[in-house]
Write a structure and sequence with these properties.
By secondary structure, the protein is of the alpha/beta class. It has a single domain, classed as Alkaline Phosphatase, subunit A (3-Layer(aba) Sandwich). Helix content is 37%, strand content 16%. The protein has a seven-stranded mixed beta sheet with strand order 2-7-6-1-5-3-4, sandwiched between helices. The longest helix is centred in the middle third of the chain and has 23 residues.
């Protein structure tokens, strides 16, 4: 199975929903203009972080991966073999690839991303973490990098989703997207990179977890040499592992619910 890209970078903005529409967000909008974008990517229900990020990295739903916010701290998921993470599948296919997981939400690094396959991991506040992400991209040119930034979800819980303070934090996060894309360009890998920006869920009031439109519909943007603009592809967050596998030439897990959305790529 041949690869389409040598580098895939996922920029995950926790709790972003599709609320960028209510502020300027020039960097997210730029990704829509340059590649594919939808405001109606469907996330996993319950719309909670463990359930959603589990699906986004394991390719199966919460009834299968069994990760919940209440149990995710109990045991490292990566030690279970029945549903390997996208990290492990990439490592099995490419033993020498540089893999990274830079996550504000610590359980991604300690309870989902594998501990024993040489993933470069880091955590910290979004601003500090973004600076380290940019340096890492320029120094290591990762073949697969998962980024999780969490300050928007924090603002949603503190002040309410889609409120003034929340949208102010969204603007800050949009700036992080721009900095990360600039680092990809500075690293000299832009022409052979698939860059995706998306989120795990939205929110309503000061919470999330339910099936409302505000919680389950999220933005998804992808820029890359084979991405089809304005394709109208129907995307789910659980499709991320299949998208990454397709881009890097990694065989898909036959047990996945994850699928490559029809029309997203031209090959």
């Amino acid at each position: 199975m041949s690869f389409l890209y040598k580098h895939v970078i996922i920029i995950g903005l926790d709790g972003a929903g599709n609320f960028y529409r209510n502020t300027e967000a020039p960097n997210i909008r730029k990704m829509y203009a340059e590649g594919f974008g939808t405001d109606f990517c469907v996330t996993t229900v319950p719309t909670d972080s463990a359930e959603c990020w589990g699906g986004m990295l394991l390719g199966v739903g919460p009834k299968v991966h069994e990760l919940t916010n209440g149990t995710i701290d109990d045991t490292p998921y990566g030690h279970r073999n029945e549903h390997p993470t996208i990290f492990r599948l990439i490592r099995d296919r490419y033993p020498d690839y540089e893999l990274g997981s830079f996550a504000n939400w610590i359980p991604i690094n300690t309870r989902i991303a594998d501990e024993d396959i040489g993933i470069t991991k880091d955590t910290g506040p979004d601003d500090v973490l973004t600076d380290r992400i940019c340096e890492y991209i320029k120094a290591k040119k990762p073949n697969f990098l998962l980024i999780h930034l969490g300050s928007m979800d924090d603002a949603g819980h503190a002040y309410g989703y889609n409120t003034g303070p929340y949208l102010k934090e969204l603007t800050v996060n949009d700036g992080y997207v721009g900095k990360i894309r600039d680092a990809v360009k500075a690293a000299g890998i832009e022409d052979d990179a698939l860059v995706i920006a998306t989120t795990d869920h939205g929110g309503i009031g000061r919470g999330h977890g339910g099936p409302t439109d505000e919680e389950k519909y999220v933005f998804f943007a992808a820029v890359g040499k084979t991405v089809v603009k304005d394709s109208g592809a129907a995307v789910r967050t659980i499709d991320l592992p299949a998208i990454v596998a397709h881009a890097l030439g990694v065989p898909a897990d036959p047990a996945w619910e994850s699928r490559v959305p029809d029309g997203l790529f031209d090959q």
